[in-house]
Amino acid sequence: MELSTKLAQVIVDRMMQTIPYNINMMNDKGIIIASGDNTRIGKLHTEAVRVLKKNEILRFSHNDPKENVQPGVNIPVNFHNQTIGVIGITGDPQEVTPFALLLKSSTELLLEQQSFQQIEENKQNKLTRFLFRWTQKDIDFDTTQNLEKEALELNIDFYFERTVIIIKCSAKKLLDLRLEQDNFHLNRSVNTQVLICKDLSTVKRCINFAHNHNFRVGVGSTTKNIGKSFYEAQTVIKISTLLDKDYIYYREVKFIQQLLTTNLADKTLVEKFSMLDNTESGTDLLNTLLIYLKNSGNMNKTASDLHIHRNTLLYRLSKIHNLIGLNPHKFTDLFQLFLTLLTYLNHKNPQLKIH
Predict the structure, then answer these.
(1) Which pLDDT value is given to residue 49?
(2) Cβ distance 342 to 314 under 8 Å?
(3) 251 & 342 share domain
(4) 10-31 as b/e, with b when 16 or more CB fall inside 10 Å?
(5) What is the DSSP letter of 178?
(6) What is the mean pLDDT of residues 256-278?
(7) Tell me, what's the pLDDT at 64?
(8) How far apart are CA 227 and CA 131, in angstroms?
(9) According to the model, what pLDDT value does residue 209 have?
């Protein structure tokens, strides 16, 4: 730990607001790094060098221009049994010594606090790096071994089965959700919070929290493979966003994800959807189809959600039939419409694309 110029100057400036004496702070080489007299910064303080060597208080009652020393007291600053700097206060040694002792204690306390904060910050950074790598989908054998070693250092049971949850919100919004020990939070991006949960009760609490705040949530499977669970939770979020439907668990979207990865959709039909989406009326038709599919073909619910008359819905579905060549009222045609719309939306939104 070293006495930084920035910290030293802050201490000097604040202290000199309450005492009528000039203060100098020197580093471990005796160079003045902070002072109430800017002209002295950067100069060697010879008496400070002696203080550093002897690790004791030195008082001076006379002025020595040749040695760049003025009357006052110089006192060592210690950190973990090492002398890392010197505090000097100019003035009558008897008057300024109590101030110097108080400033020494305050400075050493600040250094201890700063050191503790740095240690905690380093721990948190190390944990964050570990969690980020732990949630990678495909990791090789060497990476797994390295992660296992890091987990041991962080006192984490690497092979305990856990569940990954993704909540779409800012880290600040998640402050009210206090996780128990052995459950972890990773701020993956500005609006993507990843939670790695060790027990079912925590999983349920996280889901309830998301629902109560109207945050989109995705839950992966419970497994030792954290990367797999993260990918599944991420897939839930993507498909929920893609279809504007609140899925929660990966098992709810697994079939949809498999459909997307098989490339079964007819390219000609996908192109027709793209052409439709380039017109205002066509976009309305695609939205109508999406709501119709979300409601499993329920006419009354679809009309209600779209705020249109049932006859208007029938007209739109008929128009889809005429333009696309598939009848939304027939099961096999409806399935093709679903697959085509799903594929089109997946390609339209590359940031949500399912691979």
Answers:
(1) 92
(2) no
(3) no
(4) ebbeebeeebebbbbbbbeebb
(5) P
(6) 91
(7) 57
(8) 10
(9) 95
Domain that holds residue 342: 263-352
- More confident: 271 or 67: 271
DSSP calls for 52-89: HHHTS-EEE-S-BGGGTB-SEEEEEEEETTEEEEEEEE
The mean pLDDT value of the chain amounts to: 92
Contacts of 13 (CB under 8 A, 6+ apart): 36
Sequence-distant (≥ 6) Cβ neighbours of residue 68 within 8 angstroms:
40, 43, 44, 45, 46
| Residue 134 half-sphere exposure toward CB, CA atoms < 13 A | 30
Phi/psi region, residue 49 (left: phi>0; alpha: psi -120 to 50; beta: rest), is alpha
Residue 182 Ramachandran class (φ > 0 left, ψ -120 to 50 alpha, else beta): left
What's the average model confidence in pLDDT over 84-93? 93
Same domain, 272 and 256: no
Spatial CA neighbour of 276 closest among 211, 337, 228, 225? 337
Confidence of residue 351 (pLDDT cuts 50, 70, 90): confident
Residues 326 and 304 in one domain: yes
3-class secondary-structure state, position 38? helix
pLDDT, residue 65, reads: 56
143 token code pair:
């990476």
Q: How many beta carbons lie within 10 A of that of residue 313, not counting itself?
A: 20
Task: Judge contact between 203 and 187, C-beta under 8 A.
Answer: no
| Orientation of helix 280-294 relative to helix 267-276, angle to 10° | 120
Kindly give the pairing relationship between strand 58-60 and strand 72-79: antiparallel
As a whole number of Å, the end-to-end CA separation of the chain is 49
pLDDT band of 305, cuts 50, 70, 90: very high
- Judge if 245 and 270 occupy the same domain: no
Tokens representing residue 140 in the block:
């090789």
Write the pLDDT tens digit of every residue in 170-210: 999 998 888 888 899 999 989 999 999 999 999 999 999 99
The last residue of a domain, from among 217, 244, 260: 260
